[in-house]
Task: structure prediction
Amino acid sequence: MFTFHRLLGAVTIALLLPGFAAAQDRDTQEVQKYTLTDAGLAKYSQATKKLAALPGGDCDDDDSQSIDDAAAKLNASPGAKTAIQSAGLTPREYVLFSFSLLHSGLAA
Result:
Protein backbone atom coordinates (compact mmCIF):
# COMPACT_ATOMS: atom_id res chain seq x y z
CA MET A 1 0.00 0.00 0.00
CA PHE A 2 1.12 3.56 -0.67
CA THR A 3 2.55 5.08 2.48
CA PHE A 4 1.77 8.76 2.42
CA HIS A 5 3.66 9.40 5.66
CA ARG A 6 6.93 8.21 4.15
CA LEU A 7 6.41 10.53 1.21
CA LEU A 8 5.78 13.43 3.56
CA GLY A 9 8.88 12.55 5.55
CA ALA A 10 11.01 12.55 2.43
CA VAL A 11 9.53 15.86 1.35
CA THR A 12 10.14 17.41 4.74
CA ILE A 13 13.79 16.38 4.65
CA ALA A 14 14.19 17.59 1.06
CA LEU A 15 12.67 20.98 1.81
CA LEU A 16 14.35 21.63 5.13
CA LEU A 17 17.93 20.42 4.73
CA PRO A 18 20.36 22.89 3.13
CA GLY A 19 22.94 21.93 0.56
CA PHE A 20 20.84 19.72 -1.73
CA ALA A 21 21.77 19.38 -5.38
CA ALA A 22 20.43 21.55 -8.19
CA ALA A 23 17.52 19.16 -8.75
CA GLN A 24 16.39 19.79 -5.19
CA ASP A 25 16.63 23.54 -5.75
CA ARG A 26 14.45 23.22 -8.86
CA ASP A 27 11.97 21.12 -6.91
CA THR A 28 11.83 23.66 -4.09
CA GLN A 29 11.25 26.50 -6.53
CA GLU A 30 8.56 24.55 -8.36
CA VAL A 31 6.79 23.72 -5.11
CA GLN A 32 6.92 27.34 -3.96
CA LYS A 33 5.39 28.53 -7.25
CA TYR A 34 2.63 25.92 -7.29
CA THR A 35 -0.86 27.20 -6.50
CA LEU A 36 -3.12 25.01 -4.42
CA THR A 37 -6.76 25.12 -5.55
CA ASP A 38 -10.05 23.67 -4.33
CA ALA A 39 -10.39 21.70 -7.57
CA GLY A 40 -6.88 20.32 -7.14
CA LEU A 41 -7.62 19.38 -3.54
CA ALA A 42 -10.74 17.48 -4.59
CA LYS A 43 -8.73 15.48 -7.15
CA TYR A 44 -5.87 14.98 -4.72
CA SER A 45 -8.23 13.74 -2.00
CA GLN A 46 -9.89 11.32 -4.39
CA ALA A 47 -6.51 10.01 -5.59
CA THR A 48 -5.27 9.60 -2.01
CA LYS A 49 -8.35 7.55 -1.06
CA LYS A 50 -7.88 5.34 -4.11
CA LEU A 51 -4.20 4.85 -3.32
CA ALA A 52 -5.00 3.93 0.27
CA ALA A 53 -7.41 1.27 -0.97
CA LEU A 54 -4.78 -0.47 -3.11
CA PRO A 55 -3.68 -3.91 -1.97
CA GLY A 56 0.00 -4.75 -1.65
CA GLY A 57 3.00 -2.59 -1.01
CA ASP A 58 4.38 -1.60 -4.39
CA CYS A 59 4.86 2.05 -3.32
CA ASP A 60 5.64 1.39 0.32
CA ASP A 61 9.41 1.94 0.20
CA ASP A 62 9.35 5.55 -0.97
CA ASP A 63 12.69 7.18 -0.31
CA SER A 64 12.46 9.57 -3.25
CA GLN A 65 14.91 12.45 -3.41
CA SER A 66 13.00 14.58 -5.94
CA ILE A 67 9.62 15.23 -7.50
CA ASP A 68 10.75 13.33 -10.60
CA ASP A 69 11.87 10.35 -8.48
CA ALA A 70 8.57 10.13 -6.62
CA ALA A 71 6.56 10.52 -9.83
CA ALA A 72 8.62 7.83 -11.56
CA LYS A 73 7.94 5.41 -8.71
CA LEU A 74 4.20 6.07 -8.94
CA ASN A 75 4.34 5.69 -12.74
CA ALA A 76 6.13 2.36 -12.32
CA SER A 77 3.25 1.01 -10.24
CA PRO A 78 0.31 0.29 -12.55
CA GLY A 79 -2.19 0.30 -9.66
CA ALA A 80 -0.96 3.60 -8.25
CA LYS A 81 -0.77 5.22 -11.66
CA THR A 82 -4.32 4.14 -12.52
CA ALA A 83 -5.66 5.29 -9.15
CA ILE A 84 -4.13 8.73 -9.55
CA GLN A 85 -5.14 9.13 -13.19
CA SER A 86 -8.72 8.08 -12.45
CA ALA A 87 -8.92 11.06 -10.08
CA GLY A 88 -7.87 13.41 -12.88
CA LEU A 89 -4.20 13.91 -12.01
CA THR A 90 -0.92 12.66 -13.38
CA PRO A 91 1.49 11.05 -10.91
CA ARG A 92 3.74 14.11 -11.20
CA GLU A 93 0.83 16.46 -10.44
CA TYR A 94 -0.07 14.29 -7.46
CA VAL A 95 3.47 14.49 -6.08
CA LEU A 96 3.72 18.22 -6.74
CA PHE A 97 0.40 18.81 -4.97
CA SER A 98 1.61 16.68 -2.03
CA PHE A 99 4.86 18.60 -1.72
CA SER A 100 3.10 21.96 -2.07
CA LEU A 101 0.52 21.02 0.54
CA LEU A 102 3.25 20.04 2.98
CA HIS A 103 5.27 23.17 2.23
CA SER A 104 2.22 25.39 2.79
CA GLY A 105 1.44 23.59 6.03
CA LEU A 106 4.97 24.06 7.29
CA ALA A 107 4.89 27.73 6.35
CA ALA A 108 1.64 28.25 8.22
In short: Residues 46 and 87 are 6 Å apart (CA to CA). The chain has one domain: 4-107. The mean pLDDT is 81. Residues 4-107 form one domain.
